[in-house]
Amino acid sequence: MKFVGIVGTNARHSYNRMLLEFMQRHFADQAEIEILELTDVPMFDESNDQTDSDVIQQFATKIEAADGVIIASPEHNHSIPSALKSIIEWLSFKIHPFDGQAVMIVGASYSVQGSSRAQLHLRQVLDAPGVNASVMPGSEFLLGRAPTAFDDQGNLKVQGTIDFLDSCFAKFQKFAEIVAEMNAPEALSFNPGTYEVTATGHNGELPMRVTLSADRIEDIEIDTSSETKGIADVAFERIPKEIIDGQTLAVDAISGASITSHGVIDGVARAVKEAGANPDELKKRRATKAVAKPKVTEVTTDVVVVGAGGAGLTAAAKVLQAGHQALVLEKFPAVGGNTVRAGGPMNAADPDWQRQFAALPGEKKSLQELTELDEAQIAPEYRADFRTLKQQIKTYLADNADQTGTLFDSTLLHRIQTYLGGKRTDLNGQQIYGQYDLVKELTDNALDSVKWLKSIGVKFDETQVTMPVGAIWRRGHKPMGDLGFAYIQTLKDFVEKQGGTIMTETPVQKLLVTDGQVRGVVATNADHEQVIVHADAVILASGGFAANTKMLQKYNTYWTAIDDDVKTTNSPAMTGDGIRLGTSVGADLVGMGFSQMMPVSDPNTGELFTGLQVPPANFVMVNQQGKRFVNEYGSRDELTQAAIDNGSLFYLIADEAIKKTAYNTSQAKIDQQVADGTLFRANTLAELAEQIKVDPDVLTKTISDYNHYVDAGSDPEFHKTAFDLKVEVAPFYATPRKPATHHTMGGLKIDTGAHVLDHQGQPIDGLYAAGEVAGGIHAGNRLGGNSLSDIFTFGRIAAANALADHETAVTE
Known about the structure:
Blueprint: E1 2-7, H1 15-26, E2 32-36, H2 54-65, E3 68-72, H3 82-90, E4 102-108, H4 116-126, E5 134-135, E6 141-143, H5 159-183, E7 193-201, E8 204-212, E9 217-222, H6 233-246, H7 258-274, H8 279-284, E10 296-300, E11 303-306, H9 310-321, E12 326-329, E13 346-347, H10 351-354, H11 363-371, H12 380-399, H13 411-422, E14 424-425, E15 431-432, H14 436-456, E16 476-477, H15 483-497, E17 501-503, E18 508-514, E19 517-524, E20 530-534, E21 537-540, H16 549-555, H17 577-583, E22 589-590, E23 595-601, E24 621-622, H18 636-645, E25 650-654, H19 656-659, H20 667-676, E26 680-682, H21 685-691, H22 696-712, E27 732-744, E28 747-748, E29 755-757, E30 763-769, H23 786-811
Parallel strand pairs: 1-2, 1-3, 3-4, 4-5, 4-6, 10-20, 11-12, 11-21, 12-17, 21-30
Antiparallel strand pairs: 7-8, 8-9, 13-16, 14-15, 18-19, 19-20, 22-28, 23-27, 24-25, 25-27, 26-27, 29-30
Helix pairs in contact: 6-7, 9-15, 9-23, 11-12, 12-13, 13-14, 14-23, 21-22
Organism: Lactiplantibacillus pentosus IG1
Domain FMN-binding: 201-275
GO cellular component, one term: membrane
């Protein structure tokens, strides 16, 4: 038999290590015992997921391949050491190699009682649902007075102790055989045929066709039309293949597409059940994983890009266009980052194009109010631009005084609105606004980014000009097709056709520095092999840190509170990796205390398009007491802070008429969410109140008052300025909502050439940054549509300067 022995401490000298080494020698003729050390295991941190790291994967693979596990633990303060607890946490967070595995506990300690209390605690930990190990009962091997228990050769001295260990080990061998027999999957037979089933994916129903022969899963076909392109694609490719290849349902979900992954697995399970077999038996079949052999791959390229979102792929494309080599490293299985999740329109002032569209009611008034703004409220560096803009607006208003006129825009309007939109004051009274030279670089070059995207194949719908949510002005260039995916697919295809390499599932651990110059990275690939990349320049484009709660809380100076369980609308890959890499070589940071929240997000997932997400004019928000608490037509910041002040969780109330105005949903999806308990529906407001646990009388009065305000066109309570429908047509709905992190404003400090700057304001040789990993542009608030302008503009700038700086250095 083959066992794995885990030394339950990371101490340099350990009597528990000596105990395992003795067992390894003593029982060599009965079993092979491989000893694993905790030395390199990181402390468990849910917000900095290390599940895919080499050390965690090595533990998981070896434990799964073993016939049993022996844990030797000391006792620290009546419990187990933190290092041992961390490895168990990592191995029960997203992966579960201990599940059903036979475990023997032994322990050595200075005290006469050995490690009895630690062993008791360890049994409780291993019995937890996420761990679910099969721990051998009784037969506790407690080695007391450990310093005197071993001789000079590391052997136990007392024969009685050795005899008892022999007895315990013999019982463990039998126990491991029994556990293996219990876990052995039954032979399955299916009623052959093709079964049509419907699972639940990320965006609703997931129709599937599963073909089974008498004893095998032969084929899995999935209707992917309802899922978001670019996000779930890897799950649709990989999960069916792993199920068929391994004839098992014990396959790992794909990071970033876990809901879709589980949907596919559940759909196959339903088909198996319909075919007369027990799908639980397929879940017992472990997928075979090869233990990675230690291997180091070295690669040389001109520019290495960290992150395969919009900024990273843009940078790589520009490098390749210039005839140089580019390698892109992405830690997730799929490319796209946050860009693939974007709504689509990017901001760029294009007056010649925008002039073909008529001005909308209220736009002239907004421009007039801007000209009346006191210049003293404008930062000195922006005042010259503001004066010129005022003259542009006055000329436009004069020319269109007697007519509706066409849509006005200019680069200066985009610049000043970006500046004004980003102005914020934090809880300490510190005001922040966009750095002038960076905002100027963005707004001056945004239109060139649109033109460049067109040149590589992105098609835009030029029949309409749009205003993304929170954008202030209509200057959005909307791509044809699937919005954010339209950019990513085109960029990915272009990079690959130009000879670029994209390595997914390859997180970067550190930067290579030679004589103070950044000259590459060290990463780990999908096979858990080390990859060393030598390059003339490194471009960090790994996004922000909206999925890293501890990092948000650490730097926050804007929100009165950020909950421990706050979710994000972002990709789960956004954990601040690029910021960590940059600061490791001395990079300065800017604006880290500011983050943007999306107030109307799913409290469980952070998603936007669950429940009934309706236009703001139809928002009716009630707190956990059933009362309105804010002007629902207010800014995102106002709604978010009001929600935080009311306990964060609130409900969007709607009726059947308002339901029809909801975005991106279907009746089937609504019915499924009601069945799942994530959306509430009732025939009366009183019944709805009971479902969401508020006083029926309070909710009924709240809605009655709101309906009167709609009739009157005035809201004396919270001064809502735009109304549409009343809440009066049954059935009634309550969508739980909670603020989720949407964008992190701060990041690495850069200059207009996208060089990363140190604390003295000097460029770090060979290091560049683009996109949300960099700060200073959006200040305290990012305008909707500006993030896309940012990533495509500074992605191009970073690439151009990475090449130009190197060529200059070579020349010099």
